[in-house]
Structures are given as structure tokens and as C-alpha cells.
């Protein structure tokens, strides 16, 4: 079956292809990439019956416009970006048909940061180190394999999936409220006990605000300065959600495009779903942290994954 294409007429500030991420290569200094909001990305694929790991388009802030080269089934998940189909309003969190020649247009998001556009069967691109995930700073993955973001005139390829699946509607408990102040689960880390009592009380007893110096690599938090008795460390591996505390005492939550090693003490690690929710927080938005146990975090993640298998 011949491929179909979506032609980009307006790319928006930052639009990239993301599959589940690039794993098994951190020893080479290569980070994972993948969707900043795993939750919305997963549900976008679920709406079309795509298997876990299918490649979808991550759209930051909005501003995307594209035209279908042939009929296709698409799904849009994430915050409201004032989407229209040939000028008619289109709500998020649903699958829909885009016919050849029709135009899908996204304005700027009203809340949240990132939306996900999936196509039945997933977008097609050449894997790099086993993944299509786009990591701009590493020059890896994406629609051209070189880490480039979408540009006007680019075409996104897909293999039309003719298999019809029953119409799907998201469960009510899967729909997030991006305007609600989130409470984010943190698993205490190896250096947790070296933070003084006042810092720990402040970490979990006072709100934090998202700094405007934030991107897919990491999100800075503004709040009370945290103090750790460890003056220096040997650099160690950095996992998704690691909360590093540099000398200024303001935490940095490391996300999908993070460096692979770091030498600042860590308060702990946000759970994968906490990272997803944080990735939708806008600069200035308030968040709270709370401590959770490893087994509780694993149980939450297994229950989440079980909904897609």
C-alpha cells in the first residue's frame, strides 16, 4: 500500500515526532527523548488503536497547520489549542477523519503546553539508534532523522491503516484539568538525607513556581532555597524526573532531553506521570511536591500501562 502524507504549511514554534523514546544508549551519552507528556501521547495513540510506542507528533504551544494528501484517521489529545478542521471548531481528546485536501489548523494553546497528534498506524520515519524520537540538541531522530523540527513544506509520511476500530471515548478519569494546581509525586533519592530539616519542610510544605527557563531538557522551579550538606559529588547517571539542586538551591527537574550524567545532589525523582503533568505547566504556574514510596510509584505506572495493553 502506498504511503500517505500530511503537508506542513505552518509548523508552529516547536513540533517534533516522538515515539516511546530511545533506550539502551545512555552509555553512549545519548538521551532518551520521547513524549514530554507520556499521558496525552499514549491516549492519542489509544484513540486510534495504535500499539504502544507508535510515533506521534508533539506540538508545543500550538500554531500548527497541515493539509492531508489523502484520507486519514487522526486523533488529537492534550490541551485545547483552538483546533479547526476546514475552519470548523474541533475539540481535543477525540479521533476524527481528515479527508484529502482538508486543512487542520491549531491556534495557540489556552492552557497547558503540549498537544499530541496521532495518525492511524503511526507516522513513518527512519529509526536512529532504534527510535524515531526527535532530540534536537543531539541531532537525532524526527521526520528527517537529524533531529530537525518541522518546517513549512515538510511532509509527514504514514501508511494508511484501513482496519476500522470502534469509536473510542476517553474514560472520564483520564481527562486532566491543566488549570488545576498539580500535586507531583517525588520518590526521595540517595542524597535526600543530606538536605537540612528546614529544606525538607519547605520542599513539601510550600508551593513552587515553574520558571520561564524551562524546556524539554529540564524545568526549573522557583521557591525557597534548598540546602544540602554535600559540597561536591562525582557525576552519576541521571534518570527521567531527577530533581537536581544546584548551588543556588533552586531545583531543576530533568526531563526527556536531559544530559545523561550530572554532579548536583538530588532531592529525589518525580514519577513518570508526575513528569507528564509537569510538562504541561506553563511558566509562573504553581505546583506542589509530595513524597511517595517506590512501590506505590511502580504500582501507579503499571496500572497506567495496563490500560494500553
UniProtKB/TrEMBL annotation:
Gene3D superfamilies the UniProt entry points to: Cyclophilin-like
Residue ranges of domain Carboxyltransferase in the record: 27-308
Single GO molecular function: ATP binding
Pfam families named in the record: CT_A_B
Keyword annotations: ATP-binding, Hydrolase, Nucleotide-binding
Keyword Manganese: no
Family annotation (PANTHER family): 5-OXOPROLINASE SUBUNIT C, CARBOXYLTRANSFERASE DOMAIN-CONTAINING PROTEIN
Annotated protein name in UniProt: Allophanate hydrolase
Amino acid at each position: 500500500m502506498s504511503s500517505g502524507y500530511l503537508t506542513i504549511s505552518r509548523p508552529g514554534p516547536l513540533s517534533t515526532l516522538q515515539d516511546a523514546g530511545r533506550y539502551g544508549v545512555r552509555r553512549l551519552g545519548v538521551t532518551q527523548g520521547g513524549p514530554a507528556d507520556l499521558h496525552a501521547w499514549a491516549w492519542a495513540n489509544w484513540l486510534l488503536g495504535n500499539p504502544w510506542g507508535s510515533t506521534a507528533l508533539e506540538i508545543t504551544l500550538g500554531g500548527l497547520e497541515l493539509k492531508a494528501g489523502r484520507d486519514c484517521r487522526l486523533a488529537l489529545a492534550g490541551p485545547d489549542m483552538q483546533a479547526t478542521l476546514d475552519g470548523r471548531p474541533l475539540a481535543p481528546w477525540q479521533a476524527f477523519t481528515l479527508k484529502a485536501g482538508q486543512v487542520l489548523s491549531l491556534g495557540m494553546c489556552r492552557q497547558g503546553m503540549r498537544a499530541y497528534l496521532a495518525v492511524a498506524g503511526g507516522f513513518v520515519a527512519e529509526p536512529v539508534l532504534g527510535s524515531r524520537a526527535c532530540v534536537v540538541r543531539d541531532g537525532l531522530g524526527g521526520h528527517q532523522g537529524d533531529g530537525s523540527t518541522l518546517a513549512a513544506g515538510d511532509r509527514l509520511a504514514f501508511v494508511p491503516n484501513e482496519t476500522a476500530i470502534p469509536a473510542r471515548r476517553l474514560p472520564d478519569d483520564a481527562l486532566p484539568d491543566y488549570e488545576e494546581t498539580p500535586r507531583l509525586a517525588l520518590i526521595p533519592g540517595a542524597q535526600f538525607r543530606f538536605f537540612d530539616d528546614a529544606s525538607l519542610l519547605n520542599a513539601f510544605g510550600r508551593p513552587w513556581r515553574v520558571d520561564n527557563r524551562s524546556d524539554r531538557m529540564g524545568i526549573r522551579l522557583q521557591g525557597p532555597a534548598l540546602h544540602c550538606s554535600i559540597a561536591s559529588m562525582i557525576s552519576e547517571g541521571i534518570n527521567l524526573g531527577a530533581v537536581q539542586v544546584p548551588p543556588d538551591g533552586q531545583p531543576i527537574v530533568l526531563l526527556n532531553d536531559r544530559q545523561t550524567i550530572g554532579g548536583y545532589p538530588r532531592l529525589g525523582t518525580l514519577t513518570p506521570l508526575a513528569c507528564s503533568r509537569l510538562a504541561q505547566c506553563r511558566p509562573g504556574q504553581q505546583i506542589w511536591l509530595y513524597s511517595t514510596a517506590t512501590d506505590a510509584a511502580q504500582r501507579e505506572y503499571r496500572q497506567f500501562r495496563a490500560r494500553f495493553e
